[in-house]
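Predict the structure of Formate/nitrite transporter family protein.
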Amino acid sequence: MMDYITPHEVAENMMAAAVSKSQLRIKDLLIRGALSGALLAISVALALMATTQTSLSLIGAFVFPVGFVIIVILGLELVTGSFSLVPLAWLEGKISGFRMIKNLSWVFIGNLIGSLLFAVLFWAASTETGQIKELGLIEQAIIKISEKKTIGYAGHGIPGLFSAFVKAILCNWMVCMGVIMSMTSKSTLGKILAAGIPIFIFFALGYEHAVVNMFVIPAGMMFGAKVSISDWWLYNQFIVTAGNIIGGLLFTGMTVYYTHVDKTKTVTGDKL
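Done. Here is the predicted structure for Formate/nitrite transporter family protein.
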């Protein structure tokens, strides 16, 4: 099909995208990152609504990718997706290590801001700013998920925390596959389908995504989950972020790029 972009071309586009992302201003990284965090949080709420209404988790997984494809189509910034691209530019000497860390850090902060903002707004809308004490099925589900993702892992000690780490690797293997798959099409519909399939897989299998957890864990805390801020970060966020880096870069970014890139061509960048 005329719409199809070959893996060889995708590899070149991956590096070009990595260099382009690294050159964005902090303001743009924060704004695009915040929008991405909020959109992914909205998708989680939508997926939980679908799951609780149908009692079928696959239905929730089917609708969850809507936020991700919006992020891809609008060229927003999701740190988990960037894990598969921006470090490649550093490994190839296109950008400095400082610029890589700067980019990923600001996008992470932006994602966190957007996720927390939607969590507060979702809590306010669901409880009429604390006036309604009886929680609905979605809110109850968020509480259970929040506790399971933190004190649930901690309750099993090192094996539980290692499980979170492995789930994070498996998750971003698929998420970054969605980022790269979106580059295989020039059409909007093609990008939606290509990006959405791997995202459906990760959510259906219940793996761990750092930005999703930026919403669901603090939202659960707002609704009454027995989870502290230290529980959130020590038993999940730090561990899952590390796993997402490995899954995105090693299992997806490097494997796709280095098996398809034409090393005789270069992409210009900077080393600021």
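The chain has twelve helices and no strands.
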